[in-house]
Design a protein that fits this description.
The protein is mainly α. It is 80% helix and 0% strand. It has ten helices and no strands. It starts with a helix and ends with a helix.
C-alpha cells in the first residue's frame, strides 16, 4: 500500500496492521534510536577492523593459516557492520532533517503540513522495515567478528602449536579446521535463531570443509589453500559493500530528492 492510502483507511482498517504501526505518527524518534544503536555497533566493529588489519600485515598465512583466516574473517565481518551502521545512521539523520524542514514550512496549512509529515514517516518506516534482516546480520556480524578475533588470538598462544608443526600437516588440513570451527558456531546459531546470515555462514563452512577436505585427502598437492581461503574471505566486502549501499540508495535517495533539493 502507498502511504497516502494508509491514512485514507478507517481506524478499524489500520488496526489490522498490528502493534504501534496501526497508529499515526510524526517524527523519527524511533528510527533515531535504532540508528544510534547501529552506530554503537559500528564503533565496536571499527575497533575490531583496525586491530585485524594491523595484525594481518604481520601474519604469514602460509605458516599460520588458522590465525590468518580468522583475522580475515573478523575483518570482513566487521566491515559489513561498519558499512550497514554508517548507512543507517546517515539516512535516518537525512530524513530527520527533511521532516524538520517540512515542520518549519511557512505560509502552509497546518493540517496539510501534519499530513505530509505523516506520509513521509510512513514511507521512510516502510523502507527501513525492509532492512530488518540486514540489521540483524549487522548485529550478528559484530559478535562473530569479536569471536573470530579471539580465536585468532587463541591460535597465537596455542600450546599444541609445536606438536602441530611437527606433524607437518598441509595448509588444506589447517583450512579444513578453520571451516570446521566456523561450522561449530554457525550451525547451532542458525538452528537456534533461524537467522538467514547464519544459514549463509553454515553453508559456506560446509563448502569450505568439502573443498579443503578433498584437496587434503584426495588431491594432496602443495596448493596454498590457506592463503586462497583468506583471500576469498577478504574479497567478500568488495561484493557486499556496494550491494548494501545500493540497497539503501535505491529506495531512500529518490525519496530524499522528492522532498528536498539538498541531498
Amino acid at each position: 500500500q502507498k502511504p497516502q492510502q494508509v491514512w485514507a483507511q478507517s481506524p478499524s482498517a489500520r488496526s489490522s496492521i498490528g502493534g504501534e504501526e496501526k497508529f499515526e505518527h510524526t517524527g523519527f524518534g524511533h528510527l533515531e534510536a535504532i540508528a544510534s544503536a547501529s552506530a554503537s555497533l559500528g564503533l565496536i566493529s571499527t575497533l575490531v577492523f583496525s586491530l585485524c588489519v594491523s595484525c594481518i600485515h604481520g601474519v604469514d598465512a602460509k605458516n599460520h593459516p588458522v590465525k590468518a583466516n580468522f583475522l580475515c574473517l573478523a575483518t570482513s565481518l566487521s566491515t559489513y557492520t561498519v558499512c550497514y551502521s554508517l548507512l543507517e545512521y546517515y539516512y535516518v539523520q537525512m530524513f530527520m532533517g527533511v521532516e524538520k524542514f517540512m515542520e518549519n514550512r511557512l505560509g502552509g496549512d497546518e493540517e496539510e503540513i501534519l499530513h505530509d509529515r505523516k506520509v513521509l514517516v510512513v514511507a521512510v518506516r516502510r523502507a527501513f522495515a525492509t532492512f530488518n534482516t540486514m540489521r540483524g546480520a549487522a548485529r550478528n556480524s559484530m559478535w562473530c567478528g569479536l569471536i573470530c578475533l579471539v580465536i585468532s588470538s587463541m591460535a597465537q598462544v596455542n600450546p599444541l602449536q609445536e606438536t602441530m608443526e611437527a606433524s607437518q600437516h598441509s595448509s588444506s588440513v589447517s583450512t579444513c579446521m578453520v571451516f570446521g570451527i566456523c561450522l561449530l558456531f554457525g550451525a547451532p546459531a542458525w538452528f537456534v535463531t533461524g537467522s538467514p546470515d547464519f544459514k549463509v555462514y553454515t553453508l559456506c563452512s560446509l563448502a569450505g570443509i568439502l573443498a579443503a577436505g578433498v584437496e587434503a585427502t584426495i588431491i594432496k598437492s602443495d596448493f596454498p589453500t590457506g592463503r586462497v581461503s583468506a583471500l576469498l574471505v577478504l574479497c567478500a566486502p568488495v561484493i557486499f559493500v556496494p550491494y548494501t549501499v545500493l540497497v539503501f540508495r535505491r529506495p531512500l535517495l529518490g525519496l530524499l530528492k522528492k522532498y528536498s533539493q539538498v541531498y
